[in-house]
Design goal:
Length: 110
């Protein structure tokens, strides 16, 4: 579960972003995106994403970043062995299928 070891307030804030399906308006940096054609699905980025964001998910054949959960911090970029993570200035709202993954990791989910 992405929130492991995150402060309770951070877990609650992440759950609220999942519920509202919106990005924190105070975040100044744009979210990140993973270029699927370059990604080797090593999950280094997923493991390094701070638990209070928990923005990265492994969907089996690809790894994705939910932009509404991504603060734009460089934690994932710093560990990516193939440099396939970029700033996503023109990000689009996340579709329902990806929110289903995020819902599974929200606070209060069994």
């Amino acid at each position: 579960m992405p929130q492991k070891n995150a402060p309770p307030a951070a877990v609650k804030a992440r759950s609220e972003r999942i519920t509202s399906r919106s990005r924190n308006a105070d975040w100044k940096k744009p979210p990140r995106r993973i270029e699927r054609s370059e990604c080797i699905t090593c999950d280094s980025c997923l493991r390094s994403c701070p638990p209070e964001f928990g923005a990265i998910f492994d969907r089996g054949l690809d790894v994705i970043i939910v932009p509404e959960l991504c603060s734009g911090c460089p934690a994932c970029v710093l560990v990516c062995p193939v440099d396939c993570i970029y700033v996503d200035e023109d990000w689009s709202p996340t579709g329902g299928d990806l929110w289903a993954l995020a819902d599974l990791t929200a606070e209060g989910t069994p």
